[in-house]
Amino acid sequence: MNQRWSIQCLDSFQLKCIAIVSMALDHTGAVLYPSQIWLRCLGRIAFPIFCFLIVEGFFHTHDVRRYMGRLGVFALISEIPYDLAFRGVPLEYAHQNVFFTLLIGIGMMVLLERNREWPVKAVILLLAMWLAVLIRSDYNFRGVLLIFVFYIFHESRWLAVTAGGFWNFLYQGVIQKYGVLSVLPLALYNGERGRKMKYFFYIFYPAHLLLLYGISRF
Question: Where are the alpha helices (DSSP H) in the chain?
């Protein structure tokens, strides 16, 4: 194997495992131990990894409509667990879960693939960011921007990882800056799919939020 690629040892499945562990720590800190900032800091690497993988999934899927459909279904399924865990009520509309952000990102990439001119691409990006702000999805316009970054630099892994790392410094607070650590597992990605447990990762999101809500109540 070429020495330049020898360190790339993580497949898509392993990246997802790292991301969901990080996300679980983040949400555990947010729901159960809000004073334990270190949990939130460890959790910052999850979203960049998920955005990277959503772009990878977009370029490798055989049916983008079904891909969007799955995201849409789980966005709806996850909304009540999300609101219970973070708002304490079954349904409210001030914030929407991260699946909506990822779904907007997929829709944006579909349009970007159909329009190659940069002025049009810029308009599509701005509209997608505006939609995320309008519905108040998790990470809102910054989340859509990160998906765009990984999409634009998809052909150059190191540019994608570097730009994705700088994205974490768009936030004024300190916590999200720890998301720059996501560049380490992303740099180790080998481009392979790994084990197939597709629906586990979709189901984990609403399931762990319900579990955290239940623990917080009892």
Answer: 12-31, 37-42, 46-60, 64-87, 98-114, 118-135, 140-152, 157-167, 183-187, 198-217
SS3 86: helix
**How far apart, in whole angstroms, are the C-alpha atoms of residue 190 and residue 10?**
6
Query: Which amino acid type is present at position 17?
Result: C
Tens-digit pLDDT profile for residues 50-62: 999 999 999 999 9
Q: How far apart are the first and last CA of the chain?
A: 53
Distance CA 181, CA 48 (A): 10
Which band of pLDDT confidence, cut at 50, 70 and 90, is reported for residue 78? very high
Q: What digits encode the pLDDT tens for the residues 144-160?
A: 999 999 999 999 999 99
Residue 12's Cβ-count burial label (10 Å; 0-12, 13-18, 19+) is: buried
Q: State the Cα–Cα distance between residues 130 and 104, nearest whole angstrom.
A: 10
Burial of 6 (0-12, 13-18, 19+ CB in 10 A): exposed
Q: Residues 9-26: pLDDT tens digits?
A: 899 999 999 999 999 999
